[in-house]
Structure prediction request, 327 residues.
Amino acid sequence: MLNKFFASRRRDFDSLTEQEILALAIASEEDDARIYLDYADGLREEYPHSAKIFEEMAAEEDKHRARLIAMHKKRFGDHIPLIRREHVRGYYERKPDWLVRPLGIDKVRAQAAEMETQAQRFYTEAAKRASDADTRALLGELALAEGGHVTTAQALEAEHAPRDVRDAEAASERKQFILTYVQPGLAGLMDGSVSTLAPIFATAFATQDTWTTFLVGLAASVGAGISMGFTEVASDDGVISGRGSPIKRGLATGIMTTVGGLGHALPYLIPHFWTATTVAIVVVVIELWAITWTQNRYMETPWGRAIFQVVLGGALVFAAGMLIGNA
Prediction:
């Protein structure tokens, strides 16, 4: 509701004067330069070569800003009206770097390409509305410059981040993704899927009561998720190991542990015991296959070894649950 209210208070782009268009362009160039510097700062530690690219792109935006300020002083004087992108209806928005973190290489490059395309469209439309010849020429030049920034970025990339460097950065990014999300999530999924088999199926065969089995499964899954999540957070702060934020790892572990247990607990919401048990067994097979695939895809575990480890472990726990439940 508030967003609609403030949106209605924005100016239409067509209503802006030439002075306001120049002021908007100055503010936009300043914002873009800051965003590129934020990208460079966020990438510098792990991807220094790519960080250099964004530092130089920020310098390009500063040059554009200086030319726009010079034109404004020439035509309208030193006072620049306060008008920013959020004051204009339909104007493209920019996300600060903290909204797009973690700063993956591909994500940042795609964001930068989108920024340049949007800026080019702005200058093209702004030039159409300029009656002063010098202002129109400047805006047209900046439209061409923004359109050419893709080429500029490619040239900077070739200079500062050749193919072998980009490959190394991509490999480093993939490794960090695996350490922060995949490995903790896989550990959680394995724990949730396998360790809850015994209590759930033991309860199922001991009581043959689907609702009781579901409650036991729910309690076991949620409890295991909380326990595994906190254990992951407390076990490693990620500083020395380089495994990333403990909060992110804890969430990945806790959520996937809970999901793994709930997968074969939810079927017991079905009131018919053998139907629920059959569906639960099918879900267990799917869970074990998902674990095997993830191990092979991300941890590079050979299919044979992954299948043997997961299926053997799951079968032993499942058998233990059935035997205890039928005792």
Summary: The first helix runs from residue 2 to 8. DSSP finds eleven helices and no strands in the chain. The radius of gyration is 28 Å. Residues 1-8 have pLDDT under 50 and may be disordered.
